[in-house]
């Protein structure tokens, strides 16, 4: 459980009314992670989101070459106050990247099924969450484009 006062500090939780925030508070935990810890893996079921309080979280994608070999490529970083694992809010609820901690970090771990259930019954909250997903997706797209440009030969 994460105190409601802590949740209110972050833009992600601003769309939640008092009742919903109390429910979400019960479905979250503040966690501490060490460098190299993997929070979620590409192509695995997505049932948790993470909000980065402080530290560093990198995203990696899996690329398969023509020869069938798979390798991980950097896809960007999650900024403090942003969420990672937004695939947990979008069907089919499968992570599209791997999230790995790169320096000591504090995060809020959020149970996605709880959020999905709340959003299903509150169109305003559903809309707000989809805006957050869209914003995060656009930042990730920008980061991926930047990586492509930087890795050009």
What this model shows, in words?
By secondary structure, the protein is α+β, with helices and mostly antiparallel strands. It has one domain: Sandwich (Jelly Rolls), CATH 2.60.120. Helices cover 33% and strands 33% of the residues. It is built from four helices and six strands; from the N terminus they run H-H-E-E-E-E-E-E-H-H. Strands 1, 2, 3, 4, 5 and 6 form a six-stranded antiparallel beta sheet that branches. A hairpin with a 5-residue loop joins strand 3 (48-64) and strand 4. Helix 3 packs across helix 4 (123-150). The chain is globular and about 50 Å long. The protein starts with a helix and ends with a helix. The model has no long low-confidence stretch (mean pLDDT 91).
SSE blueprint and pairings:
Elements: H1 4-7, H2 18-26, E1 28-33, E2 38-40, E3 48-64, E4 70-78, E5 83-84, E6 98-111, H3 112-120, H4 123-150
Antiparallel strand pairs: 1-6, 2-6, 3-4, 3-5, 3-6
Helix pairs in contact: 3-4
Characteristic terms for this protein:
6 strands, Jelly Rolls, 33% helix, 6-stranded antiparallel β-sheet, alpha+beta, 153 residues, globular
What is the CATH class?
A: Mainly Beta
Q: What count of structural domains?
A: 1
Provide a count of the helices.
Answer: 4
Spell out the helices and strands N to C: HHEEEEEEHH
* Parts with pLDDT < 50 across at least 5 consecutive residues: none
- Per the CATH scheme, the topology name is Jelly Rolls
Largest sheet: 6 strands, antiparallel
Q: Give the second-level CATH assignment, the architecture.
A: Sandwich
Q: What percentage of the residues does DSSP assign to strands (E)?
A: 25-35%
- Which structural class fits the helix and strand makeup? alpha+beta
Distance between the termini: 48 Å
CATH superfamily: Jelly Rolls
Relative helix content: 25-40%
